[in-house]
UniProtKB/TrEMBL annotation:
Catalytic activity: GTP + H2O = 7,8-dihydroneopterin 3'-triphosphate + formate + H(+)
Annotated site residues (May be catalytically important) in this chain: C184
Cytoplasm keyword on record: no
Role, per record: Converts GTP to 7,8-dihydroneopterin triphosphate.
Metabolic or biological pathway, per its Swiss-Prot or TrEMBL entry: Cofactor biosynthesis; 7,8-dihydroneopterin triphosphate biosynthesis; 7,8-dihydroneopterin triphosphate from GTP: step 1/1
Record protein name field: GTP cyclohydrolase FolE2
Chain's gene name: folE2
Amino acid sequence: MERKLNMPSKEERHKLFGSVEPGLKVKPTEKEQMPDLQNSKKDFLFSINAVGISNVKHPIIVPSESNPKEQTTIATFKMTSTIDYDAKGTNMSRFTEQLEAYRQAGGFVLTLSNLYDFTKELATRLKQKDASIEVSFPWFYERKGPSSQLIGLNHAEAVLAVTYKEGKGFTSSAKLVCAVTTLCPCSKEISEYSAHNQRGYVSMEVTFTDSYKEETDWKATLLEAAESNASAMIHPVLKRPDEKMVTETAYENPRFVEDMVRLVAADLYELNFVQAFKVECRNEESIHLHDAIASLSYEK
Ligand SMILES: Nc1nc2c(ncn2[C@@H]2O[C@H](COP(=O)(O)OP(=O)(O)OP(=O)(O)O)[C@@H](O)[C@H]2O)c(=O)[nH]1
């Protein structure tokens, strides 16, 4: 039998746990009468390259060329601008104010042209000459078992970023990190039978050319660059005939991390909407506790 409680009111409970009566309050409560510290002007020595907010979680709508063609997902936003040496600070509330304005206007739809509008409007709202946005999100795509054709969902980590500069226009870039299978060429070469294989993570960062207007979906194109050069793809649903095919495909296409970054780089080199790129591959080695890594950068 539990002890019978003589339950105090909620107010009394709060006092019991340390809440006190409000003290004397003398500072203004009207916005107009409050000091505006962040807008004070003085020689603060240095201009600041980026000030703003990061780690903002917000729902977005992602249109895609492939299925699922429209998906709602949770993105992490980073939004910044520069400030001059004579400005104390930025107006932080205006970043989230603008995000909310987009939500209320029907939802934040992740297209390059929307990010162009967003950064330009953000610069105006902040009364700055520039603004940058970076949106990171899990992007989902369907994959079929090669024999059964059974469908399931995979996901990759995607990032879309835009910077607006008054008088100069926009620069835009993207990043996709996806998983593939890689089978070790050395292991295949030296062993009487079998070869070790692992899950590899391919990271592709690309700077878009000025003329790119998302005629082709960058997400699906970058994914294709990684998967089509890997030993095999990763599949959510595999029956035995599928598994046999995936295993044999990997054996027929062995890849070192070095092979992966060079082959993916060759595909990115051929994409006319890509101006510059960085490719990284990280294999979670199945015969070691450590990873194998390789990376390369190229500007066309
Ligand atoms: N500049 C600056 N602001 C901060 C910092 N930390 C918190 N804040 C924010 O200051 C914000 C309030 O400042 P403002 O956005 O300038 O608010 P305001 O001046 O009433 O808004 P406006 O009418 O748009 O100018 C709050 O959203 C806080 O989050 C910081 O390190 N620097």
